[in-house]
Amino acid sequence: MNITKKKILVLAPHTDDLEFGCGATVAKLIEEGNTVFCAAFSACKQSVRKEFPEDILITEIKAASEILGIKKENLILFDYNVRTFNFHRQEILDDILNLKKDIQPDIVFIPALTDLHQDHYTIAQEGFRAFKFSSLLSYELPWNNLSFNTASFMKLGEKHIAQKIDAIKQYQSQAHRAYANEEFVKSLARTRGVQINAKYAECFEVIRWIL
User: Fold this and answer.
1) Above pLDDT 90, what percent of the chain?
2) CA dihedral sign, ordered 164, 166, 171, 176
3) How many domains does the chain have?
4) Which of 8, 124, 184, 206 is an S-S bond match for 111, by CB 3.0 to 4.6 Å?
């Protein structure tokens, strides 16, 4: 099923989660005429390596978003401290409800409801609470997912994977991460592609899909 001329919201706990979880899908959706909004809830200033400015991830997400095609005005940044989201559930829910009111998205992407990272788990739970009557998909982050139901796939081309890789490369402050690796990114996309007889894909858990 083609998705065109839709408003799509990605809830990203941290500034790089969209790129890792669904960067190639976002690039393709924008290419096909959809409007994508990204709301990132923390720039992780408290955990940035000392050799970088504490706000480096804000600079990096702006550069990465441009590569994927996200308009500057559609990038929304909040300033919660990393690993403290569970103490701010109501404020986060209020922020998400305001996004719902302002954007009125047709489709929402969130982390998996079983994501092991405490911030990801909070965004997934509060995102589900806010958008339980909407089409809702969870993106894959294998290093945080104890299990992941590969129920929905987006077929992708070389150019979409290249955009994802280029976007991830903007995150020099995260280059030390094992998953911030071009070979891994491409291999995972190839694996998901094989599952649906395509060259590349990203996969998603279906929480709600309203036809």
Assistant:
1) 98
2) positive
3) 1
4) 124
